[in-house]
Design the sequence.
């Protein structure tokens, strides 16, 4: 059986070009003991993958040039040499950026029986959802009544953060980059604020209007002017959960930090970065909490879907242009 997969031909500087992604194919070897073969139906593309294209190790190893890329995927077992998995099982695993994956059975997660679409395990019930839940509850220690600000608020992580915070009884302001996204935020009771064409001062003024009682929790996905604007409106004892800083992922050089970082001292604030993988032992608690609510329709789960393996790089690149509302996914055709 053939597997078609993407490789990288070069480590990009700045915004990656479509040309560095090469679609290749290979004949899969016979299944070894403990391995499974999976026909992928959904692939995940995520901002962290840009860091893996830099050729240096960050908190995950880089993609190797000329080698199959990988990432989150959902598929169906079509052949199994692992007694715990049978043909037809639906699984989540890391053999993405390809149509057919052959991986160790130990490394896959059999999807539980919640009444949700299977691709939810790449988004609201997968890594991004777990990131939202961990960052808001454990890192920011968000409490009922907090004034919460979220950047990239309509993305995979941000869209669950704002809804979890609303469910706690918080006043929530969401920063996003297009009229469609702002309208969606408003429709779920979040105060929408755009960052487009605004200086940090102008964005800060808009945040102050939307959150007149200041900010107790800032969930940071973006960095740059969003961070600078948020710092000036922190309340005393504010908590900032630093999840990501997508503004810097395509920068050729390290940027200069915000000039008003001293606000962390003045407001006795706490700013803490986190990586969701370090909290994965809590994934079961997260699923128990959030999956029934997703199944009930409590959360408005958004996704943006590109069709066909060939479109995977396009889906990935669109993340840096705001091309997605909710989770960006690639759906593979039969
Ligand atoms: N720490 C962790 O363990 C962890 C885990 C998962 C994700 N993350 C981080 O969480 C953040 C969100 O990830 P996600 O998967 O949910 O992605 P996402 O928000 O679904 O997609 C990225 C969004 O970021 C916004 N964006 C892109 N470039 C921007 C720029 N230059 N300035 C401002 N906004 C920009 C765009 O929305 P607009 O149209 O609104 O601009 C885009 O839709 C990322 O920083 C990611 O690296 C961290």
Sequence:
């Amino acid at each position: 059986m053939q597997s078609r997969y993407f490789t990288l031909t070069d480590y990009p500087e700045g915004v990656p070009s479509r040309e560095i992604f090469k679609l290749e194919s290979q004949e899969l070897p016979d299944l070894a003991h403990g391995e499974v073969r999976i026909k992928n139906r959904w692939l995940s593309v995520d901002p962290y993958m840009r860091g893996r294209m830099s050729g240096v190790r960050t908190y995950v190893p880089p993609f190797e040039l000329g080698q199959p890329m990988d990432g989150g995927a959902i598929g169906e077992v079509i052949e199994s040499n692992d007694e715990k998995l049978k043909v037809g099982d639906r699984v989540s695993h890391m053999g993405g950026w390809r149509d057919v994956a052959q991986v160790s059975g130990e490394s896959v997660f059999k999807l539980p029986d919640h009444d949700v679409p299977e691709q939810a395990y790449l988004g609201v019930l997968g890594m991004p959802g777990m990131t939202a839940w961990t960052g808001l509850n454990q890192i920011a220690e968000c409490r009922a009544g907090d004034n919460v600000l979220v950047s990239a608020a309509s993305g995979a992580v941000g869209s669950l953060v704002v809804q979890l915070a609303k469910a706690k009884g918080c006043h929530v302001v969401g920063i996003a980059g297009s009229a469609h996204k702002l309208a969606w935020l408003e429709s779920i009771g979040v105060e929408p604020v755009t960052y487009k064409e605004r200086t940090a001062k102008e964005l800060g003024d808009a945040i102050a209007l939307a959150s007149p009682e200041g900010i107790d929790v800032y969930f940071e996905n973006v960095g740059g002017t969003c961070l600078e604007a948020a710092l000036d409106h922190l309340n005393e004892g504010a908590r900032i959960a630093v999840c990501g800083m997508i503004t810097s992922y395509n920068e050729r050089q390290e940027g200069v930090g915000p000039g008003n970082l001293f606000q962390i001292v003045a407001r006795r604030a706490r700013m803490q970065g986190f990586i969701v993988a370090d909290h994965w032992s809590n994934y079961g608690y997260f699923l128990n909490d959030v999956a029934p609510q997703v199944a009930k329709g409590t959360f408005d789960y958004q996704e943006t879907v590109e069709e066909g393996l060939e479109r995977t790089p396009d889906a990935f690149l669109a993340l840096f242009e705001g091309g997605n509302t909710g989770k960006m996914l690639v759906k593979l055709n039969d």
In short: DSSP finds nine helices and 15 strands in the chain. The longest strand covers residues 35-44. Residues 2-123+301-331 form a domain with the Quinone Oxidoreductase; Chain A, domain 1 fold (CATH 3.90.180.10).
